[in-house]
Design brief:
CATH architecture: 2-Layer Sandwich
Number of strands: 7
CATH topology: Heat Shock Protein 90
CATH class: Alpha Beta
Low-confidence stretches: none
Order of helices and strands: HEHEEHEEHHEEH
Mean pLDDT: 85
Radius of gyration: 18 Å
Strand content: 15-25%
Largest sheet: 5 strands, mixed
Number of helices: 6
Number of domains: 1
Oligomer: single chain
Helix content: 40-55%
Structural class: alpha+beta
Shape: globular
Distance between the termini: 65 Å
Amino acid sequence: MIAGASERVEDLLFIVNDLLELAKMREGRARAPWICNLSINQVLADIFDAIAPYAQERGVELVSDIDGVAVLRWGVPPDLVYAFENLIQNAIKYSNRGGEVSVALRVDDRVAQVEVSDRGIGIPEDLLDDVFLEFVRAPNAKKHDRSGTGLGLSIVREGIEMHGGTVAVTSAAGSGTTFTVRLPLDYLPPEVAEKAEADSVAD
């Protein structure tokens, strides 16, 4: 009984933390300052190194398919790390043992496209339009793995959109899932533009 209560308290703490992050991002507040020349290649490489033990533990093969160099003019490292780490971790979590998760990067017309694909349990078609909403988890996802707050994909979308990008999903139950993130390399966030304008007026 004590162990069960402890797990519920831990779950509630995760939910509260995720809700705070989501509220902060919806107010346009980044987790950290914007920096210039943020390498998506390096972000993905660091995530691969960090998450490899988890993939090995779950018996899932991680495949990197990087073609091109993607450097954002401006970016917030923790927000993008969270977004890509969440997508890759979910792909591993909802894959079956012996499965494969592929992360592909392409750059075209000054837009970086990252696809995270798995051959796992998939998402039922009737939930595809709702997966980015708060507290939405597919029944097959809950059955496959109890952990999760149902807020991760909402935070992912907020973080990507804050960078002027988009995130989309294609999936079918039992056939795997692909999340596609598109980020314009030259996006200028409003707060950076406003600060630059204020600095120029002050000068």
